[in-house]
C-alpha cells in the first residue's frame, strides 16, 4: 500500500512538473506571438519600399542563423568522420595482424587438410600456368599482390 502511495505521489509530482513546463512554454510562445504582431503592425505602417527592405533584412537574419546552425552540424559530422576513420584504421591494422598471424602459424591438422586438397585438385584439373596456393593463404597473397 505504501509502495502504491509512493508511486502515486511520484506520478503526481512528475505530472505537476510537466504541467509547469508546458505553462512556461505557452507563456514564451505568447510573448513571441505578441512581438511578431507588434513587428507586423509596425511594418504595415511603413512605406512599401521600407516594408520590402525590412522583409529582406528579416530573411537575411533567418538565413544567417540557419547557416550558423548548419556550420555547427557540419563541424560535428566532420569530427565524427575523423573519429570513425581512426577507428577504421585501428580495426584494419588488427585484421591485418590477425591474418598475418594466421598465415604464419598454421595448425598441424591444417597441413594434412592442405595436402589432401592439393592431391584432389591435381587429379581433377589441368594446370595451365596458374599459381597454386592454399585457401588459407589467400588474404596474404592478395595483400602481397597489392603492395
Concise synopsis of the structure shown:
It comes from Psophia crepitans. By secondary structure, this protein is mostly helical. It has helices at 2-45, 48-104, 108-124, 138-146.
Main attributes?
0% strand; 86% helix; mainly alpha; 147 residues
Describe this structure in words.
- The protein has 147 residues and is an all-alpha fold.
- Among the domains are: 1-45; 49-103.
- Helix content is 86%, strand content 0%.
- The chain contains four helices and no strands.
- It has helices at 2-45, 48-104, 108-124, 138-146.
Indicate the low-confidence ranges by residue numbers: 115-123
Shape: flat
Helix content percent band: over 70%
Rounded Rg: 36 Å
Which strand-content bin applies to the residues? under 5%
Keywords: Coiled coil
Coiled coil: 1-101
Protein name: MYO5B protein
Topology:
Layout: H1 2-45, H2 48-104, H3 108-124, H4 138-146
Amino acid at each position: 500500500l505504501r509502495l502504491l502511495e509512493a508511486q502515486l505521489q511520484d506520478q503526481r509530482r512528475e505530472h505537476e512538473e510537466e504541467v509547469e513546463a508546458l505553462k512556461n512554454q505557452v507563456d514564451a510562445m505568447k510573448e513571441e506571438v505578441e512581438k511578431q504582431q507588434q513587428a507586423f503592425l509596425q511594418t504595415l505602417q511603413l512605406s512599401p519600399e521600407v516594408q520590402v527592405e525590412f522583409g529582406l533584412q528579416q530573411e537575411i537574419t533567418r538565413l544567417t542563423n540557419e547557416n550558423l546552425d548548419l556550420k555547427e552540424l557540419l563541424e560535428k559530422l566532420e569530427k565524427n568522420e575523423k573519429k570513425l576513420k581512426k577507428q577504421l584504421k585501428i580495426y584494419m591494422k588488427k585484421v591485418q595482424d590477425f591474418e598475418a598471424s594466421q598465415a604464419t602459424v598454421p595448425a598441424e591438422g591444417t597441413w594434412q587438410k592442405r595436402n589432401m586438397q592439393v592431391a584432389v585438385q591435381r587429379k581433377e584439373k589441368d594446370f595451365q600456368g596458374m599459381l597454386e596456393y592454399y585457401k588459407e593463404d589467400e588474404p596474404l597473397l592478395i595483400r602481397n599482390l597489392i603492395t
